[in-house]
């Protein structure tokens, strides 16, 4: 047994501190979101609907989000808190993996002190790995973007988890002895493949990994070993079922992505869109850590030892390729600020490693304080809106738009239960998604009404009534649509029987809120467009 030294004891305390901090942050985030009782956003409701029919792919996304929500439902049911729980857990695990990656890279750092005990070196070499890991884990756990991702069911939280797991296993693979490296390459392939099944932008990880491997002669030699290529094979095998699903369904996800790009091409793009995207990144990272990441990039090579910090170069290597890819998209058309989310994990590693190497505790504390303020603001957004009166000034704020769906869902559930065999139908994927979430088991499967047969969403791809067998497609159906957002004349021309049932309204704070029209239809008529 190895003796318990002061350095090992300090490392154990840092690990315990990090685990406790991540657990507390996750519990707080989960409790605050659960306490607000926010209804599901239609994207979250859509993922819940996907989880009712497990598959290897869906119209707009790979299947991982549906799989984890399905697993969560089997444990705790279909409540909003349960649907969102995997995102909170994924962000917590991502912080742990990012910390582990930082520790591995910092442990391999050559001595920082050019002269023994140089006073400006800031931190002893033995303390650097533990402190880098602790500060990196805390940084990732509190990133403003993570504060949002950890509160709602998103594909990006799973992508961030897989990206950070791959960072750790990749770092281990590149530094492990030859006899141990292969298993870490296989683990990297596993994390990468699961990442591709979460979101396709995981593919940029391979670009960053290649840049890192090409950066030194010792790492370039790793490309002549089986490890990296077996890693790629494992990732490809895990991703293959989604490719086959797309092949079966006419590459629906690829076409959807292309349509998004074509729609984006109509946007302005250019310098303004590019700057807006880049300016948003420091806000999503947190102002303090953004400044530290920039300073690390500029000053790490000026360390008193004359050596650059490997942890800084590692972090930036797994940051700038993603930023470059998405910023090019922003220049050509547009790009949402969150599209480069995994890049922030690399930036956090670079910033925290640089702060740790200089033992800049005060700077780290300020950076954490700013991120914690954002975390609290996001966790209690509706409360702050109400206390400041902003909810009255901006009645259609992001939180109020979620209100009303459980109430109208209950009314639709009652209407469906009133007539055995009545099935849900709509021409709006948002309505279908929310009703599957809130109108009860009889709302699934829900059917899409698409007179032009365009396959523009998951329901129109797989649940179009025009493609049902003749006896089944006649109905009866309860057509549900947001009032004023459907063409009544088209509905009259498409069915033999069209009978209005009524309108349901969910008032929000005394004003009209979500409003749905309910219409019973039966007997789909033949049409040249169907």
Describe this protein's structure.
By secondary structure, the chain is of the alpha/beta class. The chain folds into two domains: 6-110 and 120-265 and 281-382, no CATH class; 403-524. It is built from 25 helices and five strands. A five-stranded mixed sheet has the order 2-1-3-5-4. Strand 1, helix 22 (429-438) and strand 2 (447-448) form a beta-alpha-beta unit. Helix 2 (42-51) crosses helix 3, helix 5 packs parallel to helix 18 and helix 13 packs across helix 14. The chain starts with 5 loop residues before the first helix and ends in a 6-residue tail after the last strand. Residues 114-123 and 302-306 have low confidence and may be disordered.
List descriptors.
2 domains; 25 helices; alpha/beta; globular; 530 residues; single chain; 5-stranded mixed beta sheet
Could you give a short description of this structure?
By secondary structure, the chain is an alpha/beta fold.
The biggest beta sheet is recorded as:
5 strands, mixed
Order of helices and strands: HHHHHHHHHHHHHHHHHHHHHEHEHHEHEE
Strand residue content: 5-15%
Report Rg.
Answer: 26 Å
Number of beta-strand segments: 5
- N-end to C-end Cα span: 75 Å
Question: What's the number of helices?
Answer: 25
Roughly what is the average pLDDT, rounded to an integer? Answer: 85
Helix content: 55-70%
Structural class by sheet pairing and helices: alpha/beta
Question: If strands are numbered along the chain, what order do they take across the biggest sheet?
Answer: 2-1-3-5-4
How many separate structural domains? 2
Q: Shape from CA axes?
A: globular
Low-confidence stretches: 114-123, 302-306
């Amino acid at each position: 047994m190895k003796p318990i030294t002061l350095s090992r004891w300090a490392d154990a305390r840092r690990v315990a501190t990090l685990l406790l901090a991540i657990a507390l942050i996750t519990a707080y985030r989960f409790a605050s979101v659960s306490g607000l009782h926010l209804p599901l956003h239609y994207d979250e409701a859509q993922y819940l609907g996907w989880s009712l029919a497990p598959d290897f792919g869906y119209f707009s996304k790979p299947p991982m989000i549906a799989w984890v929500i399905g697993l969560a439902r089997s444990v705790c049911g279909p409540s909003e808190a349960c649907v969102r729980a995997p995102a909170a857990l994924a962000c917590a695990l991502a912080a742990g993996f990012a910390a582990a990656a930082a520790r591995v890279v910092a442990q391999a750092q050559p001595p920082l002190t050019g002269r023994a005990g140089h006073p400006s070196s800031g931190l002893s070499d033995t303390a650097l790995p533990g402190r880098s890991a602790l500060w990196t884990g805390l940084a990732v756990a509190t990133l403003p973007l993570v504060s949002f991702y950890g509160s709602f069911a998103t594909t990006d939280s799973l992508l961030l988890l897989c990206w950070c797991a791959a960072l750790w296993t990749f770092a281990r693979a590149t530094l492990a002895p030859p006899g141990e490296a292969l298993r870490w390459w296989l683990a990297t392939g596993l994390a990468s493949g699961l990442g591709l099944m979460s979101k396709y932008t995981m593919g940029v990880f391979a670009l960053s990994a290649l840049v890192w491997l090409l950066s030194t002669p010792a790492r370039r030699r790793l490309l002549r070993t089986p490890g990296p290529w077996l890693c790629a094979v494992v990732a490809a095998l895990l991703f293959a079922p989604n490719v086959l699903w797309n092949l079966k369904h006419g590459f629906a996800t690829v076409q959807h992505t292309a349509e998004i790009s074509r729609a984006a091409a109509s946007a302005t793009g250019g310098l303004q869109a590019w700057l807006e995207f880049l300016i948003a990144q420091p806000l999503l990272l947190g102002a303090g850590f953004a400044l530290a990441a920039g300073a690390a990039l500029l000053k790490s090579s000026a360390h008193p030892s004359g050596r650059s910090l490997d942890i800084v170069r590692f972090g930036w290597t797994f940051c700038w390729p993603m930023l470059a890819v998405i910023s090019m998209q922003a220049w050509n058309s547009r790009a949402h600020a969150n599209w480069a989310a995994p890049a922030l994990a690399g930036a956090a590693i670079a910033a925290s490693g640089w702060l740790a190497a200089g033992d800049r505790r005060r700077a780290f504390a300020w950076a954490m304080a700013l991120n914690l303020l954002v975390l609290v603001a996001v966790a209690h957004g509706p409360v702050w809106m109400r206390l400041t009166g902003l909810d009255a000034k901006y009645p259609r704020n992001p939180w109020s738009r979620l209100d009303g769906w459980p109430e109208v869902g209950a009314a639709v559930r009652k209407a469906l239960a009133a007539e055995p065999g009545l099935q849900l139908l709509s021409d709006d994927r948002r309505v279908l998604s929310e009703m599957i979430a809130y109108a009860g088991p009889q709302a699934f499967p829900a059917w899409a009404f698409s007179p032009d047969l365009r396959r523009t969403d998951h329901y129109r791809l797989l649940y179009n009534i025009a493609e049902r067998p003749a006896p089944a497609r006649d109905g009866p159906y309860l057509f549900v649509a947001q009032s004023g957002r459907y063409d009544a004349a088209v509905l009259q021309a498409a069915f033999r029987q069209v009978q209005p049932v009524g309108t349901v309204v969910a008032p929000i704070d005394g004003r009209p809120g979500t409003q749905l029209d309910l219409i019973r239809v039966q007997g789909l008529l033949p049409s040249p467009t169907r």
